[in-house]
Design brief:
Layout lengths: L16 H33 L4 H25 L6 E8 L2 E11 L2 E8 L4 E8 L30 E4 L3 E7 L12 E7 L2 E9 L9 E14 L4 E8 L13 E3 L2 E2 L13 E6 L5 E6 L1 H8 L8 E5 L6 E5 L4 E5 L4 E6 L3 E7 L7 E10 L2 E2 L4 E3 L4 E2 L7 E6 L4 E2 L7 E6 L16 H9 L8 E3 L2 E4 L12 E5 L2 E4 L2 E2 L8 E5 L3 E4 L7 E2 L3 E5 L3 E3 L4 E2 L17 E4 L11 E3 L4 E3 L1 E4 L2 E4 L2 E13 L6 E11 L3 E8 L14 E4 L2 E4 L1
Parallel strand pairs: 20-22, 20-23, 20-45, 21-24, 22-25, 24-26, 27-29, 28-30, 29-32, 30-33, 31-34, 32-35, 33-36, 34-37, 35-38, 36-39, 37-40, 38-41, 39-42, 40-43, 41-43, 42-43, 43-44, 44-45
Antiparallel strand pairs: 1-2, 2-3, 3-4, 5-19, 6-8, 7-8, 7-16, 8-15, 9-14, 9-16, 9-19, 10-13, 10-15, 11-12, 17-18, 46-47
C-alpha cells in the first residue's frame, strides 16, 4: 500500500548549523508578522462585534440582573417570605431589579422580575406554598442568546455546508480490519484487492420544508498510483454502518454486510472520470436524487460508497476527515487546515417560521404541547398506524407546519396555554436541606462519609443505614454495584455534595431496584449498561407499579454550573429525572425528564416513554429518537400543574 510519508517526515539530524540559524531567523520574522496581523484582526473584530462596548456590557448586566432576581426570589420563597406584593428595588452593581408577586389562583403565582439595564422582564410560574421549588421559566433568561433555530433561507438561495462527517475505507485484503480513524480514503485496488470508501454527511443543516434543487458530494484528492483516468462511481449505502467498527465483512459489530464489501445500490448515482495530475483538489459527484430522498424520508441517510467502476489494478487516494494539511510546510507546521469530505446543497422555498424543528429520523406518538411554532420534516413518523393518533397543541397565534397531516396526525391551538410544571417535594424533606447535611460532614461515621466515596462490585443495601439514607461530602461512584429495592413509604436515598456516577466494572453492570432516589449537588451520570429501576416494560402501562425512583441534579451559581443529568451508552432508567440545568438522553428513559434549561435528544438510540418538561430543546430541534407520550410512568412524587398525555388526551395533574 502506498503511503504519503512526506506528510509526517521531519528534518534529519544532519542539518548543518548555519542552515538551522537561517531557518530560525526566517521563523522569527514570519512569527512577528503573523502576530501583528492577528492583533490587528482581533482589534478590528472586537470593534465590529461590540465586545467591550456599552451595548455588550448592558446585555451582560441585564443577564446578571435577571439571574440574580431569580436567585433572590428563590431565597424569599424558601424562607416563606415571598408574599403578594412588590419587592425592591434591589441593587446589583450599578443596576437594580424589582420583584412583583401576583396571585393567579389555583395555588399559582406570577413572578415578574424587571431590571433597569435593558428593561428585562421574566415570568415564572410556581406553587404559592413556602417550600422551595424548581422554577421552569416560560421564556429563555437571555434575550440575546442564540435561539438554536435552524436559519431559514430565502427563496431560490444556495447554502453550502460541509456538515458533520463519518468516513472509513474497507479493504478486501484485510477483511476484518477497521480503518475508521485512517487519514486516507482509497478507491480502486491495492495489492490486487478491491478497496472502497464510505462517507456519511449530516443533512440536518437543511431547513425543513425546502425543495432540493441540487446536491454534490466532494472528496479532496491527494494522490494516486498512476496518472491515468479512472471512473469512480458513487452509490447510496442501504445499511447502517459504524465508522469505528465497519470492515470489509461487517457493517458494525454483530452485523455482517449482506454482501462483503458493503450494501449499496448497484447502479451508481453519478460517475466521475478522475485523473491525478499532481494537483490536490476537490472532486465532486452529483447526489441530488439521493439527498432529496433522504431529506424527504424516503430512505435513511446511511451515506455513500465510492468505488472504481472499472477493474483497473490501480487506486486513487482522497482525504478523510482525519487528514490535515500543514502551513507553511510539513517541517514547520505552524498552522493546519482540514480538507474533509463535504456536501453542497442548493435548495429553495419560503423560510419556515422559527420554532421547534422535528426531523424525519424522529418517531413521536401521543399528544403533546409546544409553546411556539412547530415545523415537521417530510417523512416524519408521527402517530402513524398502528400507533396512537397524535395531536400537537400550540398557543393561539402559533402554528404547526407539515406535509404529513392525516387521520393519525393533526394539530390545534389551545387556550389557555398549559402552565409549566413545578415540583412538590413530598418524599424528600427538601433537596437543599439534604445537601446541607452532606456538606456539613466533618468525619466518617454511620451513614455519613467525609470525602468522595466509591463502591465497586458489591451489594449496597440502603435499608441497612439510618433512615435508608447515605450522605457523602464529595462525589459518589457506583461501579458494578447492586442496590436492592426499597418501599414508596421509605425509599432509599443517596445524597452527594458532588457528582453521582453509575457505571460498570469488570463487566459487572450497576443495577438499581425501585424506590431509590439520587440527589447530587452536581451532575448525575448513567453510563454503560446501568439499569436504574426495575424493568416493568412487559406490563401494560396502567398496571405498572407506582414508585418514587428519581434522579435529582442540583445546580449552583445561577444555574451555570453542574445540575445536568446524562443518560448515555446503553443505560436504561425507570425514573423521573430533574436537571436544574441540562438533560442529555442518548439511550432509554421510562419516566419524565424535567430540564430547567434544555434537553438534548439528538440520537437515533434515544427512546423515551413518558413525558418531557423543558424550557428548550437543544438547537430547538428533535433530530432523532423514539418518543411515546401515550405511556406515562406512574409516580407519587410529583405534584403540580403539568401537561401529561394518557390514552390520547390531556390531563392536568
Amino acid at each position: 500500500m502506498k503511503y504519503l510519508h512526506t506528510i509526517f517526515d521531519f528534518p534529519s539530524s544532519g542539518v548543518r548549523k548555519n542552515q538551522r540559524g537561517i531557518a530560525l531567523v526566517y521563523v522569527s520574522i514570519i512569527t512577528i508578522l503573523i502576530l501583528s496581523l492577528v492583533s490587528i484582526f482581533l482589534i478590528n473584530m472586537a470593534s465590529q462585534m461590540g465586545y467591550g462596548s456599552v451595548d455588550f456590557l448592558k446585555s451582560k448586566q441585564a443577564y446578571q440582573l435577571s439571574m440574580s432576581g431569580v436567585d433572590y426570589m428563590y431565597d424569599l420563597a424558601r424562607a416563606g417570605q415571598l408574599n403578594i406584593g412588590t419587592y425592591g428595588p434591589y441593587n446589583l452593581g450599578s443596576g437594580t431589579f424589582t420583584i412583583e408577586n401576583e396571585d393567579l389562583g389555583n395555588n399559582m403565582r406570577k413572578i415578574t422580575i424587571t431590571g433597569d439595564a435593558s428593561g428585562y422582564e421574566r415570568i415564572f410560574n410556581f406553587s404559592a406554598a413556602s417550600r422551595p421549588r424548581i422554577f421552569f421559566p416560560e421564556y429563555p433568561l437571555i434575550d440575546d442568546a442564540p435561539s438554536g433555530t435552524i436559519p431559514g433561507a430565502p427563496t431560490d438561495s444556495t447554502l453550502d455546508d460541509e456538515g458533520s462527517v463519518e468516513d472509513a475505507l474497507i479493504w478486501e485484503n484485510q477483511k476484518t480490519t477497521n480503518y475508521g480513524t485512517y487519514a486516507y480514503l482509497y478507491t480502486g485496488k491495492v495489492s490486487s484487492k478491491k478497496i472502497h470508501s464510505l462517507v456519511k454527511l449530516d443533512l440536518s443543516f437543511i431547513p425543513i420544508g425546502r425543495t432540493i434543487n441540487s446536491a454534490t458530494v466532494e472528496l479532496y484528492m491527494v494522490d494516486a498510483s498512476d496518472d491515468h483516468d479512472h471512473d469512480i462511481g458513487v452509490h447510496r449505502i442501504t445499511r447502517h454502518w459504524d465508522e469505528n467498527e465497519v470492515t470489509w465483512r461487517k457493517a458494525e459489530s454483530g452485523t455482517d454486510w449482506s454482501s462483503q464489501g458493503g450494501d449499496y445500490v448497484s447502479n451508481d448515482e453519478d460517475e466521475n472520470s478522475v485523473e491525478w495530475d499532481d494537483d490536490r483538489e476537490y472532486v465532486s459527484w452529483d447526489v441530488t436524487q439521493s439527498v432529496t430522498d433522504m431529506y424527504n424520508g424516503v430512505y435513511p441517510n446511511y451515506g455513500w460508497l465510492f468505488k472504481y467502476e472499472d477493474n483497473d489494478n490501480d487506486y486513487t487516494i482522497f482525504a478523510s476527515r482525519e487528514y490535515y494539511v500543514c502551513w507553511p510546510s510539513y517541517y514547520w507546521c505552524w498552522f493546519q487546515y482540514h480538507t474533509p469530505p463535504r456536501i453542497k446543497v442548493n435548495y429553495s422555498g419560503p423560510p419556515s417560521p422559527d420554532g421547534l424543528q422535528i426531523y424525519n429520523n424522529a418517531v413521536i406518538n401521543g399528544d403533546f404541547f409546544v409553546r411556539g411554532n412547530v415545523i415537521v420534516a417530510n417523512g416524519t413518523d408521527i402517530g402513524d398506524p398502528p400507533n396512537d393518533p397524535t395531536t400537537i397543541y400550540v398557543p393561539v397565534g402559533d402554528t404547526v407546519v407539515s406535509n404529513e397531516f392525516d387521520s393519525y396526525f393533526d394539530w390545534s391551538t389551545i387556550n389557555p396555554t398549559p402552565s409549566l410544571v413545578y415540583v412538590e417535594p413530598t418524599v424528600l424533606d427538601t433537596v437543599d436541606s439534604l445537601i446541607a447535611i452532606a456538606q456539613g460532614i466533618s468525619s466518617t461515621s454511620g451513614n455519613k462519609f467525609n470525602g468522595s466515596k466509591t463502591w465497586s462490585n458489591t451489594t449496597l443495601n440502603l435499608g441497612n443505614y439510618d433512615q435508608n439514607r447515605i450522605f457523602v461530602d464529595g462525589d459518589v461512584v457506583l461501579r458494578g454495584v447492586t442496590i436492592p429495592s426499597e418501599t414508596v413509604e421509605a425509599p432509599g436515598i443517596i445524597i452527594a455534595d458532588g457528582d453521582i456516577t453509575l457505571k460498570e466494572r469488570d463487566n459487572d453492570e450497576t443495577t438499581v431496584g425501585d424506590n431509590i432516589i439520587l440527589v447530587a449537588n452536581g451532575n448525575i451520570y448513567f453510563e454503560d449498561e446501568t439499569y436504574f429501576g426495575e424493568d416493568h416494560s412487559g406490563m401494560a402501562p396502567e398496571l405498572r407499579p407506582e414508585t418514587v425512583n428519581m434522579a435529582w441534579a442540583r445546580s449552583y451559581f445561577f444555574y451555570l454550573l453542574d445540575g445536568d443529568v446524562f443518560i448515555s451508552d446503553d443505560a436504561t432508567v425507570w425514573a423521573n429525572c430533574i436537571a436544574y440545568r441540562n438533560g442529555f438522553l442518548e439511550s432509554t428513559l421510562y419516566g419524565g425528564f424535567y430540564c430547567h434549561n434544555q434537553l438534548d435528544v439528538a440520537y437515533n438510540s434515544t427512546y423515551l416513554e413518558g413525558a418531557i418538561w423543558t424550557t428548550t430543546m437543544k438547537n430547538d430541534a428533535i433530530p432523532a429518537g423514539v418518543f411515546n407520550f401515550t405511556n406515562i410512568y406512574p409516580t407519587v412524587y410529583f405534584a403540580g400543574r403539568s401537561i401529561q398525555v394518557y390514552g390520547g388526551g390531556f390531563s392536568e395533574e
